[in-house]
Amino acid sequence: MHLQNSHRFTGVVAVLGMVLAASFVPTAKADEVHVAASYSAEHLNGLRAGFRWTDGPSIVPKSWLTAIGNPRVHWEAAVNTLVNSRNSSERINALSFSPVLQWALAPRLFLEAGIGVSLFDETRISDRELAISFQFEDRIGISWELDTISGSRLSFGYAHYSQADIQRPNDGLDLWVLSWHQPF
Known about the structure:
Organism: Pseudidiomarina donghaiensis
Keywords: Hydrolase, Signal
InterPro entries: Lipid-A_deacylase-rel
Radius of gyration: 17 Å
GO molecular function, one term: hydrolase activity
Pfam families: PagL
Number of domains: 1
Order of helices and strands: HEEHEEEEEEEE
């Protein structure tokens, strides 16, 4: 019963976290949803769902963006869950919020990168010890626009979670991520 209540509590925290993250981008409306599946060599499988905004506030001077190739800046909030594939009752959930930079490499092909923050509901999964709930989320990936009319994209990338040795141990998590993005 305790595990069931823990997951119910996690769901409530996830919804509240998404609302809180959205409040940091008050003038923005979500203009894209995404779902993702992830895999880790540490026997973790995951799911992710989130929103992206493209009209949020700028946090760096325009000249800085110009210096790095004028990427399009997105804001993203997501809910993540990871399950130990060797013990399916072992699960960890997180709320993530991140700016994502997107560079056009060719028509319909994009490079995406971001560094954001995540808040996990547990600090251990499988043989990975995170020490604290707060983690940085670093990611990089390639995104391909499947349809120019709908703007739907498929992306493949790498994500890393760690807390920059704020506290030890800092095993971190490394994931390969396949995502479907759908603008609306």
